[in-house]
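testing teh design pipeline on a random one, pls ignore if ur not involved
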């Protein structure tokens, strides 16, 4: 049997198997866009390139991490409010599919 890697949820701080968590990723901006900085989004597949932080598949953990600015600390960048709202809507959609 293959051992499951564990990751820490940025919201509740619990160690859980990687597959039970959703990755928030800071991917480098595409060169052709001409945009500076990075793109922050949810990585539901867990395969996107870039720096990642993990959070449980619940909006409670997401809000706890957001309120304490743990995503910003983990990803070493400021995250705009509209990006948080976009990620929260995406997480709510993923939560609906799981249940």
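output:
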């Amino acid at each position: 049997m293959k051992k499951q890697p564990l990751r820490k949820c940025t919201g509740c701080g619990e160690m859980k198997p990687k597959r039970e968590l959703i990755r928030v990723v800071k991917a480098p901006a595409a060169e052709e866009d001409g945009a500076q900085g990075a793109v922050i989004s949810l990585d539901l597949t867990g395969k996107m390139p870039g720096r990642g932080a993990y959070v449980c598949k619940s909006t409670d953990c997401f809000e706890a991490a957001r309120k304490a600015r743990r995503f910003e600390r983990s990803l070493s960048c400021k995250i705009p409010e509209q990006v948080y709202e976009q990620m929260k809507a995406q997480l709510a959609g993923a939560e609906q599919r799981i249940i």
